Amino acid sequence: MRGTHRTTRTPGARTHRVLAVVVALLALQLGSLVAPAYACGCGAMIPSRDQRIGVDREESAVRWDGRTETVVMRFNVHGNAEHAAWIMPVPSRAGVTLGDPALFDALDRLTEPEQRDRFHFWPREGEWPFTEDHGDGVGAPAPGAA
């Protein structure tokens, strides 16, 4: 009589597999809960009850002088509200004035891409990244330079 070989799985092995799948699914669910959330710290515009207002775009420029932070904001606003309250959370009492609308136009000009035609692949002497700051105010200073 020939012998037969029979393998049996213990109930514990199947339980471990099911448990591993359940733990993996729970970890996946928890991972989706800790995904980064988008936040807006710019405040809100609130019109009167029968009027509507919406903001399509917000731009901000921030200046810090070591003691005072100045935030200049520009909004693209649409709606039928003639008046609205603007609420912005700040750490203490803040002064509010109208900003210079030319500021963002100047920032757009200063940060627009510069097009240069170059007919070789590798940079040569005098081209970025081989340029040096010669004190002419053009470009950012070298790292560590004050």
Distance between the termini: 92 Å
Radius of gyration from CA coordinates: 31 Å
Strand fraction equals 15-25%
DSSP summary: helix tally? 2
The succession of helices and strands, N to C, reads HEEEEH
The computed structural class is alpha+beta
Share of helix, binned: 10-25%
Whole-number mean pLDDT: 78
Question: Numbering strands along the chain, what is their spatial order in the largest sheet?
Answer: 1-4
The major β-sheet equals:
2 strands, antiparallel
Q: Report the count of strand segments.
A: 4
Shape: flat
Outline the low-pLDDT stretches: none
Give the arrangement of secondary structure elements.
Layout: H1 11-33, E1 44-47, E2 53-64, E3 69-79, E4 84-87, H2 102-111
Antiparallel strand pairs: 1-4, 2-3
Entry summary:
The protein has two helices and four strands, in the order αββββα. With 146 residues, the chain is of the alpha+beta class. The relative contact order is 0.10.
